[in-house]
Write the structure tokens for this entry.
Amino acid sequence: MKHLLNSLESSLAQSPVGIAVELPGGLRLGNANADLRLRFRDRMAVVALAMGEIGNVGAAIVEGRVALEGSMRQLMAAAAAMLRSDPARDEQVAWWRRVLLRARSMAAHTRVRDAQHIQYHYDLSDDFYALWLDPRRVYSCAYFRADGMTLAQAQEAKLDHICRKLMLRPGERFLDIGAGWGGLLLWAAEHYGVDATGITLSRNQHAHVQRLIEERGLQGRVRMQLLDYRVLQVPEPFDKIASVGMFEHVGHAQMGHYFATVHRLLRPGGLLMNHGITAGGLDNSAGLGAGMGDFIERYIFPGGELMHVSRALQEMARAGLEMVDTENLRPHYARTLWAWSDGLEARLDEARRILVDQHGQEQGEKALRAYRLYLAGCALAFEHGWIALHQILAARPTGEVAAGALAGAQSDYPFNRAYMYEDRAAAHAAAP
């Protein structure tokens, strides 16, 4: 134990922010006058801190075995300094463990289990999410196109960025897989004149978007369905498809089927925008290290699985989709998450009241502690490159070499980026 404490003291001394640590027996380490204070009631949590297992320390905080005083930004700066290794490192996973992980992924991503996972997270409380999301409740990476943008402005910029990449045109049939609270679905309909369909597994989100459709008089041109992407059947394929913040929930074992389903739902020549979180390491089959992956699986996103962008591209190609453009928005997501984290920290009393009222004292307090750590911890992970965010634009080739803007294009994609920077007013002139 003495060696462990010496190691812990050494780590604390290297932290860029002062930390005061109180152990279960009353022994105190670190800077006694520090603003960041951790009071341990559990010896195993002390061991986790000394070993750099910051995800396990986070779990102890959620469970009330470690009391925290201080800001999330201070805590994350200290956490990064306590790490013993890169959480995105590629581990040599034995073949038998890969088989077990794939079996686990298959079992975790049935239609019933996926619905349970989505409802666990997204149906926590609409009022809670509204405290720290932008007014449109866009729960995905924003696009800070210009300096000085607010979160709300950056989210609108992201919505428009996606619509431009998809080259949406009035009258086109547009599908949003995992449409959330309807931000992209309604933006595409109102600004680009598309006939829009959204699907979700969240009952709360479905009800919210249905209300917005009625309030804005968009019935007949916009619809939201409560169903799984695997069972969606349509009389004719869509011209354009977006999937934003959804494929992280699909699971490795189902990824081939997911992209094959997208291929089925997309007309030949049509475009797909797949916007999602990707792993920083090439083979993160077991998730982020240092206990971070286990924390997110347990408290935030049960069933969530990440893969490196190269593997996502392989699965797309196997399904017959051609990647035509890819953009990494990793630092944009770090800034988005810090905006969410700061927004939640500024309204902790309101957040606590909402969660306690809906889930009871114990569960409400635990959920609040989990989200505080989750938002700030993910901001840290994106900053350090342990995870990333890729927008992958893909086409379903027509097979007709003469079709398209250029010979061999075989799709709506012009194979240049000029269309993304043209005056938006011209593109919207015909929108109703």
